[in-house]
């Protein structure tokens, strides 16, 4: 009887370990075309950045999000990184551990400061989403 109990416990623990290993960590990387930000006060949005296969990420959770974009030297834009209707103010590069859905698209928003009159081209928009 004791041997049967030990084997049963082993199988339960093994099953739990198998379920845990199914949630293997991973990441996806996406880039978007440059955005021309031309009118002060107006918000410009990038194309969506998302997983190439979002259906494979069902049930996964975001662990971290890294982003980067580039503006010409000496130029400034206000920038936000958004998912659905939630946005956060961001610098040219950074990382957050705030939660998001790895299956949903992200996008950048840009705005010229009120005192700026010349257009700015924002380039090299990139996002890396780590999930588990």
TrEMBL record:
InterPro entries: FlhE. Keywords: Cell projection, Cilium, Flagellum, Signal. Pfam families: FlhE. It comes from the Bacteria. Residues 1-23 form the signal peptide. This is Flagellar protein FlhE. It comes from Denitrificimonas halotolerans.
């Amino acid at each position: 009887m004791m041997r049967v109990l030990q084997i049963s416990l082993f199988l339960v623990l093994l099953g739990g370990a198998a379920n845990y290993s199914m949630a293997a960590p991973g990441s996806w990387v996406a880039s978007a075309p440059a955005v021309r930000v031309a009118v002060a006060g107006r918000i410009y949005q990038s194309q969506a950045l998302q997983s190439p296969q979002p259906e494979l990420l069902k049930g996964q959770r975001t662990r971290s999000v890294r982003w980067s974009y580039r503006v010409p030297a000496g130029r400034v834009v206000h920038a936000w990184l958004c998912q659905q209707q939630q946005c956060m103010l961001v610098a040219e590069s950074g990382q957050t551990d705030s939660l998001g859905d790895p299956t949903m698209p992200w996008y950048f928003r840009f705005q010229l400061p009120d005192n700026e009159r010349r257009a700015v081209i924002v380039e090299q928009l990139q996002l890396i989403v780590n999930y588990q």
